[in-house]
Amino acid sequence: MTSLIDLRNGHQITLHEEEPFILGRGNPDHLEILNPHVSRKQVRISLLEDGRCFIERLAPNPSLLNGKQLPLRKEIQIFNGDIINLIPTWGSK
């Protein structure tokens, strides 16, 4: 089972093959994000049939993967233990 864990509260979200998961303010049923600096559809996470998982930044607002800014509209493979930040902290690049 592949899942995301919200580090704020430990809530686990199960990912399903070929059903992309959108992280952003527009998905309150799975993960409540109220920050106005987060887009309704900030990033998409996709789990493929072969078990590989990818993230794609959909909005111009910056998002980080392991402290590095994700490129806009480019799928990047993610792995167990990777950390996704929808709101960059000061000092991040």
Automatic annotation (TrEMBL):
It comes from the Eukaryota. InterPro entries: FHA_dom, SMAD_FHA_dom_sf. It comes from Lichtheimia corymbifera JMRC:FSU:9682. This is FHA domain-containing protein. Residues 21-70 form the FHA domain.
